Amino acid sequence: MTERNLVQAVNAALARAMAEDPSVLVIGEDVGADGGVFRATEGLLARFGKDRVIDTPLAEVGIAGLAVGLAAQGFRPVAEIQFTGFLYATLDQVLNHAARLRTRTRGRLTCPLVIRSPSGGGVRAPEHHSESPEAIFAHVPGLRVVVPSSPARAFGLLLAAIRDPDPVLFLEPTRLYRATREELDDDTPPLPLDRAFVLREGTDATLVAWGGMVPEALAAADALARDGVSCEVIDLATLKPLDEETILASVARTGRLVIVQEAPLTAGYGAEVAARVAERGLMSLRAPIRRVAGWDTVMPLPRLERDYLPNAMRIAAALRETMAFA
C-alpha cells in the first residue's frame, strides 16, 4: 500500500489504465514533458512514449474534437483541460458530438472518452481558474459528470470512467489535490459510477455535498455532533446520472436535507437534488430543504475568495436552522 494524495491517485489511475489497455491515450496541453499543470500526468511520457502521451496546442476545442475522433475510432482518450474556465470552449464538441454519438449512429459508434479538469476554488488562482461549472455539463444528455472528493475515490472512479463506453467529464477539486493522503494499492478495484457514497451515518439531518465541499460538510457534521445532532453525510461523487435512491432513503430516515455546492446558488446542481426530493420524498421532510452555495457573482478573486466559498460555519448554521423546525 502506498500513501497518495488526490493528484497522485489520478496519476496512478492513469498509469494503470494505460498499462492495462493500449487504446488508452492521454492528450492535452503540457501533459507530456511537463507532466501537466498540476503534475497529474508526471512520468507517463517516459513510461508510455510520445505516441500515447500527446502534447497538444493551446486550443481546448481542438483537444475535445481530437478526443471525440479518437474515441469514435476505437481509442480511449483521456483529455486534460487545464482549468474548468477553459471547459466552455469544449461545449460544442462535448454537447453536439461526444454526448450524441451513440444516438446519432443508432449504437454503431460509441464515444469512450474522459475529459479531466481541475475544478473549483480554494487556491486563490486567477480568473477562469476557480469555476464550478458542473451544472452546465450535467444538463447535457448522454454525458456522465463525476466529481471525486478523496484520493481513493479519485483513483477508483477514474478507472471506472476510462472503462465506460460513453463520455465522462471528470472534475477534480483543485483544493483537494494535496489536502489529504490515503493508503492506496495499485491493484485497488474500480469504484462503481452512478452511486453516491454515505460517508457518515446519521439520524437527524442529511447533508449532501460533492467535490471540494465534502470536507466542509464533514466538518459541519462534527460541529453539530458536539450539540447532540446526528448528521448523515452523502458524497454524490457522480452527479449525472444522480443516485437519488440513496438520497431519498437518507431523507426518509432523517426528515431534513441540506445541500452544499461551491457553485453560485441560482440554477446550480443543488436545485436538481432539491427538486428530486421534493418530487419523490416530500412527505418525509420535517423542515424546508436548505441550500448552501457560492454567491450569485463572479468569484471575487483573490482576496474575497474565502468569503465566497461555503464553509463549515455556513453549513452548520443552515443545519441549525433546519433543526429549529419541530
UniProtKB/TrEMBL annotation:
SMART domains cross-referenced by the UniProt entry: Transket_pyr
Coiled-coil region(s): none
Cofactor: thiamine diphosphate
Molecular function terms from GO: oxidoreductase activity
Transketolase-like pyrimidine-binding domain span: 4-179
Keywords, comma-separated and alphabetical: Oxidoreductase, Thiamine pyrophosphate
A Pfam short name: Transketolase_C
CDD domains for the chain: TPP_PYR_E1-PDHc-beta_like (cd07036)
Name under which the protein is recorded: Alpha-ketoacid dehydrogenase subunit beta
Organism this protein belongs to: Neoroseomonas eburnea
